[in-house]
Amino acid sequence: MPIGDFARRTGLTPSALRFYADSAVLLPAEIDPVSGYRYYHPDQLARADTLRQLREIAMPLPAVRAALDAGPDEVARMIDEHVAKILGDAAAARRKAAQLTEKLTDLPSLLIAVLKGPVLADAVEQVLTATASDTTMPVLGGLYLEASPEAVTLTATDRYRLSTRTLVPDEPASTTWSATVDGDGLRVAAAEVRRCAIVRVEASTGGIWLRSREREDLHCILLSEQFPDYRAMLAAVPEATTRATVSKALLLRAMEESVRELITLDVTGSALNFLTDDKQPSQSLPAAVTGAALRISFHLTTFYPAVSTAIGPEVMLDLRGPNQPVTIRSADRGDLTTLAMPVKPDHDA
Hints:
About 35% of the residues lie in helices and about 30% in strands. It is of the alpha+beta class. It has 3 domains: about 5-70, Multidrug-efflux Transporter Regulator, Chain: A, Domain 2; about 110-230, Roll (DNA Polymerase III, Chain A, domain 2), CATH 3.10.150.10; about 235-340, DNA Polymerase III, subunit A, domain 2 (DNA Polymerase III, Chain A, domain 2, Roll). Strands 3-8-9-10-7-4-5-6-18-17-16-11-14-13-12-15 form a 16-stranded antiparallel sheet. Strands 1-2 form a two-stranded antiparallel ribbon. α3 packs antiparallel against α4, α6 (about 115-125) runs antiparallel to α7 (about 185-195) and α9 runs antiparallel to α10. The longest helix has about 35 residues, at about 70-105. The radius of gyration is 27 Å and the shape is flat.
């Protein structure tokens, strides 16, 4: 087919096709020796489409040439490495921009907390399970950080879950501070601060710094949108009517073995019973249950992360009925609390 038709079918301009031909990345199937017109074969459409997509993610031409001639597994590896490099470069640029902004504004950073690195990393990773990627509400992808001389509280919510954890600082700060920190940046930073004995958390213009002696300073940006009033959400939760304490490992294993996306539990007597589609018990987990018996359902993607991040060998479920949020916390430690919304009983799974 003529170069114009091929360009329209591939989304590449004729000038781009000429460039890729001159670069020996995508050669025409035929060139008219008299007119010099270039013609392409339909079999080249797939290669051209892959070429276009690789260039759309800013892969350099030498790497594109290698990827087009590589096998599927090798291409996947090359794409992952390329994206990792882009993210690394972006993080480095963000740090340098923050340093430059701090220098130009001549405003010193403000110490808001001193924490053990592994403790901070665990808290960040646990709470971030309740975030969501929502372009209409970017703040749901952030972690709300509140610092005072007495405590540091981390909170996240995706409107179906709410997770909050309170830490005691190693050294009390002299001020009170709060803001929403970008979750993606914190997720990357957590892997680094986990290897640091002590981390100083400092607030600066538009972000926070995580500083330690062992590693390069890390910068995470702030989100400007207002974080939901989670304290009002917690205050509105009614008193629990049923409490069940169960082995975390057994509960997670039962969910992993379930073939259903909807988890339905009968909480009664001395057990948590997993129900099948026809509401028959499929698994029974021993549990310490007090209060009224009830039946409640959750989406696996909501309930599993909430249980998996609980601290300790046993989890305590405070239930309030089939339409009310369940509180999930450690049976012996209360510094991490997660709320998860159930699915309404009339929900069509």
